[in-house]
Amino acid sequence: MIKDAAGFGSPQDAAGVVGAAGEAGVAAATAATASRIEALEMRIAYQDRALADLSAELFESSKRIELLEKFLREVAGKVKDLAAEAEEPAPGNVRPPHW
Asked: Where are the domains of the chain?
């Protein structure tokens, strides 16, 4: 190999080395990119599954909340009725009109 003043080989030698290294680098980059894409696809699949699970849980929770709100309204109505009955004096505790 003939070296120039800077200590490098001829351009033909450099092209041969860079070409082989470049091809190996491209292959490695392609494999790394494919690996990264596969990892991202797996993450998306897991996130899709988690989103579906959370959506189903939210739906079930909404149904339970609606039932509990209905029950609470019924109980509140009964308590209000009982409170109204408690405010009315019992028939045996009413003072006669002449008192």
From this structure: 11-86
